[in-house]
């Protein structure tokens, strides 16, 4: 993710986001290019400083892991400005009004203006950063992480009418539950920017649909860390295993996956649900008793090593999402040699060739999904041969490539 091209591009940039967003890849790319003035964030561990490493070494293992998650080799702490008050207050603030996001965005905009840098703000922070920057003399760039909020709100409202059992969880999606003023500000962010960076063509299309000039939108697909070892091949005589990884909620298309799986009732087959975060229990209740014993297994949260084993022992990852800004789990699976079934409303749709190194099915199309899963079950030899091609896609799409894009 090299410095954004702009006729007025400056020598250095101020970046703003909370947390370890995308593993700090954007500020890291600018730091590697010698063009990062500062990352403005809530907390960053200065593990490149001896005194802090010494203190961290005395902490319990859980604390050490948390500190390490907020640090990245190659991103010196001297280039990071932290606002730990926002880190603490985020634990208490109402998730609907997100005042801390606005505060840290303003701080970044003011700093960029004072320092004479360009401003690159992740979505959620741009609505405060750009007005604070004003006519700072440089370009205003937003990294639009998710599709446009107005497009998502319309999609989720339509989905709630289509699948009433999912209405409760869909209403809790940020695009549906933000305070009106915050939602309006999020909708305005891309309009305030000189350039919009997005991770998928689907996100680009939602911005264009909401009135953003397509010439001001640039697609920069995310990357992945490749495993050190080449993933093992499965024994084709084992159980046919379909893997789902993520929050088991309707945003991820779970009702369509479950409808397809119930319809198929495949022999010697298992759907493994590796949960990350919440699940839509009201929706799942309608499937009580719908599957024969042993055909669906929920693991709950899994460690990274356990997830790696699931990738390597699964025939295919299936996540028929309604909407993803990108969907890193798809690339993660492919990096382990696991082909994926996705929808066009994801970032991986820009990278795979349907039927060659992955599969695409239409959104809300349980029939097409069932047909594709049935094909995979009946053609496991061809599916196994696809593993190398799936990994090759991931090998071209590393985080290193992202930073150079």
Describe this structure in words.
The protein has 405 residues and is of the alpha/beta class. It is built from 18 helices and 13 strands. The protein has helices spanning 25-32, 50-57, 61-69, 84-89, 99-115, 126-133, 149-162, 167-171, 174-177, 180-192, 201-209, 254-264, 281-284, 304-312, 328-335, 366-378, 380-396, 399-404; strands at residues 13-16, 36-41, 80-82, 118-122, 140-144, 195-198, 217-219, 240-248, 269-279, 296-298, 316-318, 340-342, 359-360. A seven-stranded parallel beta sheet has the order 3-2-1-4-5-6-7, with helices on both faces. The chain has a six-stranded parallel beta sheet with strand order 10-9-8-11-12-13, with helices on both faces. Helix 15 links the parallel strand 11 (316-318) and strand 12. The longest helix has 17 residues, at 99-115. The protein is globular. The N and C termini lie close together (5 Å).
